[in-house]
Amino acid sequence: MSNLSLLGKKANLVRLETLEAIYKSGKGHIGSTFSCCELLVALYFGKVLNFNPKRINDKNRNRFILSKGHACLALYAIFRDLGIISQKKFLSYGKDGGLGGQLDVNIPGVDFNTGSLGHSIGVGGGMALAGKLNNLSYTVYTLIGDSELYEGSCWETIIFAGDQKINNLVVIIDRNRFMVTDKLEDNAIYKDLDVKIKKMDWDYFEIDNGHDFKQIIPTLKKATSSKKPAMVIANTIKGKGISFMENGLGWYTQVPSKEEYEKAKEELLKSS
C-alpha cells in the first residue's frame, strides 16, 4: 500500500471518529470538519508540518493554527492518533470538563485559542515575524475558513506580511464555498483573488481538489519553500465523504439522526 493510500485511510478514520463523537455528544460541526480532513492529515502525516509529538515545547518547531476551530474534532482525532491525548480524553468531547467545541492552549499541541474568527492570520504573522527576529527557522501555518477573508483584520496582516517579507507564513484556505447561512460564490473577495494576493507581494497557489493528496502535499511543500508569504487555496467539498451531506447548507451544526448516522457510517466504512 502506498503512503498516499495510508493517508487516505487516515483521513477516512478521522471522519469516522468525528461522526461517532458528534452523534454521541449531540453537538459539533460535521460539514466544515469533513471538508478539511485531508488538509489536516497532510500537514501532520504528510511530512509538511514535520510535527514531532515528543518536541511540543521545542521553540524551533513549526507552528500550526486551526483558525476554524469548530473543526477541532478532526484535530482531536489526529492528536489521539499521535498519542498527544488519550482515548479517554478524546471520548470526553462534549462532556462537562472534557474536550470542548473550540481549541485552547491547555490542550497539548494547540498554539492558539479559537472561537473568534479572523485573527489567526494576524497571530500567525506575529509568530512568524518573532521567529525571524529571533533567528529561528520555523514556519507558521494556519488553516482558515473561506468566509474569514471577509474580516478586515485578515487583510491588515496580508498587507503587513507582504511588506515585511514574512516568508515563513503559510495561509491555507479551506474553500468549501459555504458559510453558516449562505454560499460563497467566486465574486467580491474571491474574484481574481490571485491577482490581489500577488499584488500584495505574496505567492499564491491553488489546489484544484483539496481532497487529493497528490495535489495537496506538493503544493504545501512549494508554499513552505516560498521566498514570500504564501497563500494556498484548497478547493474542498463541505461534508465530503457522505453523499447526503456533501455541499449541504444545513450541515453546519446539524447532528445526524440515528438513521442518518447509520447511513453515513456505512458509506465511510465502504470507502475505507
What this model shows, in words?
The chain has helices at residues 3-25, 30-34, 37-45, 72-82, 87-90, 120-133, 152-163, 193-199, 213-224, 258-271; strands at residues 63-66, 140-145, 169-175, 203-207, 230-235. α6 (120-133) runs parallel beside α7. The chain has one domain (3-271): Thiamin diphosphate (ThDP)-binding fold, Pyr/PP domains (Rossmann fold), CATH 3.40.50.970. The protein has 272 residues and is an alpha/beta fold.
CATH superfamily: Thiamin diphosphate (ThDP)-binding fold, Pyr/PP domains
User: How is the biggest beta sheet arranged?
Assistant: 5 strands, parallel
Q: Count the domains.
A: 1
Contiguous runs where pLDDT drops below 50 for at least 5 residues: none
Helix-strand makeup class: alpha/beta
CATH architecture heading = 3-Layer(aba) Sandwich
Per DSSP E runs of 2 or more residues, the count of β-strands stands at: 5
Instruction: Give the overall shape.
Output: globular
The arrangement of helices and strands along the chain is HHHEHHHEHEHEHEH
Distance between the termini: 13 Å
The radius of gyration over CA amounts to 18 Å
CATH topology: Rossmann fold
Within the largest sheet, what's the order of strands? 1-2-3-5-4
